Amino acid sequence: MDLRAKLALLADAAKYDASCASSGTEKRDSRAGGLGSTEGMGICHAYAPDGRCVSLLKVLLTNSCIFDCAYCINRKSSDVRRARFTVEELVRLTLAFYRRNYIEGLFLSSGIIRSSDYTMEQLIRVARTLREEHGFLGYIHLKTIPDAAPELLAEAGRWADRLSINIELPQVRSLKELAPEKDLAGIHGAMGNLSGHIAEAKEARRTPTRAAPPRFAPAGQSTQMIVGADDSDDRHILGTSDALYKKFGLKRVYYSGFSPIPDASAKLPPAPPPLLREHRLYQADWLLRFYGFETQEILAGGEGGMLDLELDPKLAWALKHRALFPLDLNRASREALLRIPGLGARNVDRILAARRYSSVRLADLARLRVPLKKVSPFILAPDHRPARGQLDSAGLRRQLLAPSAFAQAAKPRQLALDV
Amino acid sequence: MYSVTLESPADFAGWREAARGLLGAGIPPEAVSWHSPAEPAGLFAGPPPPDVPAQSAIPPVPRDFLEMAERAARHSDPERFALLYGLLWDARRAPGLLRTPTEPRMARLEAMARAVKRDAHKMHAFLRFREIDTPEGPRSVAWFEPEHHIVEAEAGFFQRRFAALRWSILTPRRCAHWDGAEIRFAEGARRADAPADDAAEDLWRTYFASIFNPARLKPDAMRAEMPKKYWKNLPEARIIPALMQGASGRVRAMLGQEPASQPQPPGPRRRRKD
C-alpha cells in the first residue's frame, strides 16, 4: 500500500478521538537549533466541514487490533482494510507537514498489536525519533496503552507533551459489555501513575536545582468518553468526569458523541445521540471547572439525570433558582456574577474592573457584546430592572428559548478555549 | 493643524514619542492629524508639531492599556492613532479612563486590538509554506493576505518556529525574509511572486479529507473559524465543496444504505461562552 493510501486509512481510523488540543505545554523554540516551537496557545491550522479543528496530524500507527470493542471501527471483528505506518514514514510525514505550517505536531494512537508493551514501544519510537534524531520541538500527544509497563509510560512522558488514556464509557458495566478486554481498574491505575509523574515533574520545575528536572508530559493528561453508545445518563457522565478531574487532575475530559461507523456491531444503538447532547456536556464541564458549579447543581437544571437540551446548563440552572435573582451588577460578588446566564468569566472580570471607577449599566454590557436578552431578566443596573413579574413568569423559559440560535449551536468549544 | 508622519503604519514607538511631545506642548487631539507612508498626509499636510522638552509631564498609563494600544496600532483603521491620542489626552483629567473597558472609545480600542490579535492568530494558523529549490538551497515561501499591519510584529513567530529553514513570507503590505541571521523586511509583493504548488499538498489534502467526519457536517462552524476569505490561499480548501457534497452518501453507506435518521443541527453563527 502506498503512503497516500495508508494516510487515508489511518487518519480515517483516528478521527473518532475528539482531542486536537495543542495548547498548555512548556515554551520552546528553535532559535538554538531544532525545528518548531510551542508558545502556550494552541493553533488550529484548518477546520474541516464537521466544524472540528485540525491542529495535529492525528493518525494511528496501525488500525490492526487484538481488542474487540463494539464501538470502535478498528475492532478485531470489523472487516476494514488494515495498514501500518513504519516509524520512518510517520516521522517524514510529520516533518513535511510541520515545515509547511500545516500542523502543530503529532497525535499518535494505535490499535493494539501483539501486546500492550510492544504497541507502546512502537509509539514511543516515533516520538523519540522525532525528538532525538530530528530535533523536533513541536507538540506531541501520545495515546497511552493502559496496561503497558510503568517504565514505558515513564518514557512516553519524556517525549510527549500530552498523554491520554481513554476512559471510553462512563460506567464499568458498559465497559464490560462493549469493551470486554478493557479494564477500568487498569485504566485508573495508569491514570494515577501518569498523574503522579506529572505532579512530580511540575514540582521539579518549580524547585530550582542544578540538575535539569525530569520532563514529563508538561501539557498533562486527558481522556475521552463516548456519549450515547450505552444507556448512561448525563448524571453518570458528569459524575465520572468530576471524579476524574478531582482524582487525577486531568486537563480535559473530551466527550465524543457516538458516531455511526461502517460495519457497526449489533450491540450498539441504531442511531447516534443528538450532537447537541455532546455540546451541553461540554458546557456543563466548563461550569464544573471554571464557574464554581457542583455536578448536582448543574444536573438540577435538567430533569431525571439529563441536561436540558434546549437551554445551556447555566440558564437552565438559573431558571430553576429564580429566587436568587435579580443580582445587582454593581454589588454582586465575582462568584455570584459568574452565575448570571449570559455572563462569561472574561466579561465578569471586565465588569469588576469597570465598576471600580463608575457604576456599570446595561448599555455598558451591550458594548461588551453580552447577550442582553439573556442577561436582562437576571440583573439590576442603574438603567435597568427586570419588568415586574418577568422573573417569576411561567413564560420566561419560552421567551429565552425564542431565538434558539444557541440551542442550535451544537459545536463544542473544546478547541479554541482549551486550557 | 499639525501633521505627524510615522515611519511605518504600525510604528507604535514613533506614536508614543510623538504623543509625549504633543502632550507636553499641550496640543489637543483635534489639532493633530496622523499619517504613515501608507496613509500620506497629501496636499493639505500641516507642519510637524514643535519640539518639546523631553521631561514633560505624562499621565501614568496602565501597562494593560499600553499592551492593548500597541496591538490596536496595527489595525488598518486610519483613525487608530488619533483614537489613541484622544484617550491619552482625556486621561489627564480622568485617571480611571484607561482602566474602564466599558467606556465607548475604550471598547472600540479593545475591539481593534481583538481584531489584530485574531488576524495574527489566523496568520500563524493559515499561512502555508511551499518549498522551492534555489541556487542557495531549499527555500520555504508563503503568500498570505493579512487584514492589518501585522507582518513586522508576527515575523518573530515564524523565526522562532522555523529558525532552521530559510523562508520568505510575501504579503500585499510587507514581506519578511529570513536567511538564518536576521529578518529583513521589504515592500509588499504580488501573489504571482509566490510559488504555485508544492508536492506535499496532495498528501495534506488526503489527510484533510480523511480526518473529516461526514456524519457530523457543520459547515457554519467551519466557516466561523475559517472564513471563506482565507480559502483561496489554503491548499486544502479547494476540496471542501466535494467533501460536503459527498457527506450524506458516505453516512448512508455507513448506516447500511439507510437514510440518515438524525437530522443534523445547523452549526452556531458565532461560538461564544455563556
From TrEMBL, chain A:
Its cofactor is [4Fe-4S] cluster. It holds the Pfam family Radical_SAM. InterPro entries: Aldolase_TIM, DNA_rSAM_put, Elp3/MiaA/NifB-like_rSAM, Endo/Exo/Phosphatase_dom_1, rSAM, rSAM_sf, RuvA_2-like. SMART domains: Elp3 (SM00729). This is Putative DNA modification/repair radical SAM protein. Keywords: Iron, Iron-sulfur, Metal-binding, S-adenosyl-L-methionine. Residues 49-294 form the Radical SAM core domain. It comes from the Bacteria. GO terms for molecular function: catalytic activity; iron-sulfur cluster binding; metal ion binding.
Automatic annotation (TrEMBL), chain B:
InterPro entries: DNA_repair_put, DUF4130. It comes from Teichococcus coralli. This is DNA metabolism protein. Residues 255-274 are annotated as: Disordered. NCBIfam families: SAM_7_link_chp (TIGR03915). Residues 78-236 form the DUF4130 domain. It holds the Pfam family DUF4130.
